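hiii, so i know i said id send this last week but things got crazy w the move. better late than never?? heres the sequnce for the chain we talked about at the cafe, plus the structure i predicted for it. fair warning i was half asleep when i ran it
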Amino acid sequence: MATQRTSFTKLQRDRAKKAKAAAKRERRLERAAEARIQSDDDGVESSPEGPISAAELLHEIEVTHQRFEAKLISYEEFEEKKAELLGRLPIE
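okay and structure toks below
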């Protein structure tokens, strides 16, 4: 016996869920970028030598990549930030 195919309305619901998730992700990235820009404008800078775990550094690198892909930072800023973060990774 043949299996029933997915209905068109189910496909529409799935597409709507994916679109909603993508929009939510984009808003979250924009808010994070705005908060970071605002904190930079306030003169509050994170210490480049502060203790931070490798997982947190990799997360920061990921956020930097997302900001670059969203065209929130220039290529030069992206490379500079990435080099700084990669330089802080603990190598054992």
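btw Residues 43-47 have pLDDT under 50 and may be disordered. thought thatd interest u
miss u guys!!
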